[in-house]
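Late entry, evening session. Most of the bench is empty. Finally got around to the prediction I had been postponing all week. Sequence below, unchanged from the version circulated by S.P.
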Amino acid sequence: MTTVACNLKCEHLPRPLGVGTPYPRLSWKIKSDGQNQTQAAYRIQVWEDTVDGEPQWDSSKTQSSQQHEVAYSGTPLQIRTRYFWRVRVSLNDGTVSDWSEPASFETGFFSMRDWKADWIVYGRVGNAEGDFGKESVVFVRREFNVKDVAQLKRARVHVAATAGAWGNDTLRMNLYEFRLNGEKVGGDFYNPGHVSDLKQRALYRTYDLSGLLNEGANAVGMIFVSKKVSFELMLEYQNGQVEFVRSGEGGKTTNRRGPFVQLWDRAIWEYGGKCEHYDAREEFTNWDRPGFDDKTWRKTNGGTASPWILAPQMISVESYNTFKPQRIVKLPDERYVVDFGHCMMGFVEIKVPGPSGTKVKMRFSEAVKPDGSIHPASTYGCSGALSIQENVYTKRGDGLERYSPHFATYAFRYVEITGWPSELHMDDLQVNALCSAVGKESSFACSDERVMQLQRLCERTFLSNLMSVPTDSAARERMGWPGDASCVSTAECAMFDMGLLYEHWFDQVSDEQNPDGNLPYVIPSEQTLGRTDMCWSTCYGAIAWDAFMTSGDLVFLARYYDIFKRWADYVLSLQGQSGLSQGHHLFGDWLSKESCDGVLLENVFAYRALVLAAKIAEALNLDADASHYRGSADQLRSTINKKYLHDGVYGKGSQSESVLVLALGIAPVEVRGSLFAKVCKQLEEDLSFRTGIIGTQLLMRLLAEEGRDDLAWNLAMSDKLGAWRYWIVKNGATTALEDWDGGDRQTNEHERNRTCNQPAFAGGIAEWLYRELAGIKPLTPGYETVCIAPYMPDGMEHASAKIQTPFGPVTSAWKSHGAAYELEVKIPVGTKAEVHLPTGSVHKVGSGKYTFSGEQN
């Protein structure tokens, strides 16, 4: 029997650089050809720099089934150091694996005290005589020598940056680009991402410079719009000698504007990162190469006060695919409109012919008008202001020039191109589609193309809106609204590896929580949002719980527990003498079709906040807290029912109110049946939803829990207004629309409109496809116990899904031929499964591959 420990990861990554803790989390998976196997024990060894000699830490044989998020427990690790580690495992049947192949990780910095480089401040690079305006970027360069490239053992650069220099104008954009010897370092983008400025947090990114350095003279360059940046380049030689090149030492900067003419519209705060005008004639030619004449440049100012918090940026935005045009249309006025086939987030890379001074302008939209021209109203802001999603490039010379934006990203399907100097061809441009590096190890497939259209629609929408934080829309605010994020967190946790993205976001949530415990209803945001929204701010806890159920990561839960405890205490502080709170309701079940009682919804979500705090406390064995919040929740539940339940109806009797009290466990047993029956009757009659974004996701989950997957299936297949397929059939949507009827609006160019790429309404169907149609959902945190219970609708021939869990992939694949079915299940080592068959029987199995067949009832 072959047993192998594999897929070794440190802090969620296979070979991470820049780990920011002296006690990182280690994880692994186990492959074995046996059945019903679990890990009985592990042994971990860690060495500094090489697997040789005595290990720095040997865990010895540890009796434990834990395979993920095992904390390193040796002597504290050192900063800027490479480590190797390996693991061997013993299984419950006595099998002992060989040592795994060694994996590596490198530490970065553990606190601001470890950082020795100077910080360069955005506001100090210009002077009164220069052309340094609000929309300028800063250029910094420095030359240095490498004495013997062949003897380099390691070459790393750590680049740190804070939030943008101009608040909301610079919240949604790439804030720096680090360059070495004329080339951009790293393939990532959108750094450091959404970062709160309230606690002066700086994030550092670590890059491997192997193969990029020259013998002798080298030059680094940095262009930025962060408030502060800093970098440290480390050269480690084979003989043990270490040299550093740090910002502030011998650096030069200029107050000239350079080629960046415009990066945002000063009048529209929410459009930062959606505009770049670049005049290549104004470039500092070879400014980031050695030998550049920088006599007119001046020394950078060093020694400025450092930020307060330094942390690693372990996840960045990357290009996950490239796309070529599907269609190019030339309009009568010589404009081109390029259709890339579906909506996405990214940027266009162009190859421009023509003479020096040729100016090519690109405008971006998610929709087109009947005459084929772009419809920019789809990308307007919430204020109704004119979209400035545009990119302008002016050529430097007469030859063919390649260009892609340095700071801006765009949400679009269509691109309008003006000023192209010749006939535009398919090969002249391509899209780099962008998303945070959340991976795509999970998958779904089925025989019904209607379902696959929905699946692709959901996936594209989610990928477009995972940009450093889970954003509400790719085209508009691009901010972390918790209500929207909670609608998709269950689905996204099944489809992607969300751990690092959530950790990044919850760091910002922790930074921006008010001293009294109140949580802003969008984070981060330079606009102080001081009002309380019970419904939306409670959603942070729901997202954290989804993440924990997926990962089983108690370290994550403990790290952010204080957020939810303080929020729950704040929720309790708002209760009046009646035991209810009032006046803290803003968005509720956003975009629901029926009016709801705001005070009822406010207290329903207050109850949810208390229940979530209790569940998190229970998971962390904080029994006193758990008992306190559970008791407070039970008391509030009783008060809500006394106040708002009349003749089997809650509040105004809307579908949203009924769904929320049912799904969140507020409705007492004696009314649940009749209330649920009323909701089902409405759905059967309408074949569409009256609920808003939160209610729709919870309603699909409620139908599954109550055994009405048949009704959920009918809703999934409905093409009526108020159902998902209406978007596709009526509007040709390729990503989820913001509203059920969002694509029907005929607007003028200067009127606001709903976006065509907003994830919230897609969460309910995406979750249902994985958890119900394919039938995979966790019963215990981290999928240690998993339920396999697929729904097999009439007429569908097959469906399958693979979900990547901390123990390995869980697979469910079924086929149906009339009444006959076959179900194949694969369970990884360490996981147990409850397999529910269409006959009603339940089989409890351990790891391995199993096939079940029979006749459906």
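Two things to note before I forget:
The chain has 14 helices and 44 strands.
The first strand starts at residue 3 and ends at 10.
Will write this up properly tomorrow.
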